[in-house]
Amino acid sequence: MAGRGADEHPHGADRLCEAGDRVYSRAVRRGRLARRDAAPVPCLLELALLHPDPDDMDWLVPTSPQEVMTRLLRGMYDEVRASQRRVGSAVEAFEWYAGLGRQVPASPSVAEGPAIRVLDGLARIQAAMDEATHACRAEVLTVQPGGIRREAELSEGLHRAMALRGRGVRMRDLYTHVARHGHGLLSYLELMGDAVEARTLDEVVERLILFDRTVAFIPANPERTMALELRHPALVEYLGTVFERLWRLAIPLTAPLPETGIEGISHREQSIAALLAEGHQDAVIAERLGISVRTCRAHIARLSETLGAASRTQLGVRIAQAGLDGFRGPAVTRPGRGSRTSR
After folding, report:
1. DSSP annotation of 33
2. Which of 7, 124, 154, 204 gives the lowest tally of CB atoms within 10 Å of its CB?
3. The pairing of beta strand 196-201 with beta strand 170-176
4. What is residue 265's DSSP assignment?
5. pLDDT in tens, 312-342
6. 187: number of CA atoms within 13 Å, CB side?
7. Degrees (nearest 5) of the Cα angle 257, 62, 55?
């Protein structure tokens, strides 16, 4: 029966079939459901959305929607973290190979230039970016970490963005949730109109700019005074895949952040609580979420007050008791419905 159900209902709990949506909703409203009424939708039992009533095996009771949401969020969070770890490993590998490349003479068989080029200095980086912008014809994907973007940063790349918009190039940008509070970003997006679509996550990977899935730019040092220009098709395709996975999990800038489900605790404080539970120091948490250390500590103080913790050790215990230590996931759409976009 399980095999037949999987063939007829090839989906997960995040996107139920129409029959599954209808039967599960009825079970939630009524509190239980006759087993015979669930026979046409074996997917609900296979996905553990329905389970036998221990008091009467002829009846099934629904798993609470809150528990289902928790499962989905955990899975999404694990996927984001895995993607971030893979990108971090890839960046380290890029730097290692770039170092080897400087020691070996260029092969005469490479007609289109090196697959990895180190750009040393802001002037060389800007020149390479201008060149890629001029050649771009279809799409630009960017990841912008660091929280609220300063107006100077936005102004620096405005001429390239306007040139791309003029040619009908589609742009998609990923930011941290903190960037939502920056007036400069909102003004920039208003100026660009439909040419730019933006989404946000709790955390994003290091800065990435990808033109037409052919050339990508990533930082080569923490100060961002050096960059790697990547033209190897496999590397560029890999980075594009990472972007698309993060994009799917991100929340459109026009959509509100999900509620935590715990009174008095904001979405940002939930993210901080999860990082605290992982053992990170205040400065590391602040950097990963794109906020100042002072702001981070203010949120930690509010967390302690809300959870009734008198010390950091007690706060860790209370975070675990409240279920805030397991994930920091994005919003979940209602089963069977599409996610909102900013377009």
Report:
1. E
2. 7
3. parallel
4. -
5. 888 888 778 777 776 444 433 333 333 333 3
6. 11
7. 150
